[in-house]
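Researcher: Please generate the 3D structure of the following complex. Treat every line as part of one assembly.
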Amino acid sequence: DTEVTQTPKHLVMGMTNKKSLKCEQHMGHRAMYWYKQKAKKPPELMFVYSYEKLSINESVPSRFSPECPNSSLLNLHLHALQPEDSALYLCASSQDEAGRAQSSYNEQFFGPGTRLTVL
Amino acid sequence: GENVEQHPSTLSVQEGDSAVIKCTYSDSASNYFPWYKQELGKGPQLIIDIRSNVGEKKDQRIAVTLNKTAKHFSLHITETQPEDSAVYFCAASIRGGGADGLTFGKGTHLIIQP
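Model: Done. Output below.
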């Protein structure tokens, strides 16, 4: 299995709703990522998990709450979002072999994304 | 932090011709440079990457070159085909061997004219 899957594909929510985005990979990768992509813009890093621990948080508002229950799963819990949070949310994964400078272990593989609309 | 500049923003070429997309980066510590292709409604797909110890890498019709001194790298696509039409992103990363986010360029919309 060489793919990253994300559910749901589309999500519409109100500003008072609570919802979750899910991401799964079975490539044995130990690093997982959330990116946000607005229309006609590049992906922007939100969070990085390494060995199920949060290692990077790019100053993301607390209404976005990541969770990594195990090495194959990554969730993004959403609460009290704003219309400007509407975007494509991308999950990615990679191996994580810190200390190996000459390796292919940072190749990041992306899922298809969840298209989020906040009304 | 790292800053990646990408040019051009739009590139239109005749089918069969070559396409070149250029990127520059700011942080000399960056050592991993992937290129992604993104089609409408899909996630980015890794098409080729290069590490700082290599100057050039080829994979069939696609090649990437890296000039560490000048801090720029380029994507070359030869014999372009209609299915090459997409948005292409360059990116850079500091921790080439560990979990690290990617900093992306703004993207190039490549249009292959039949």
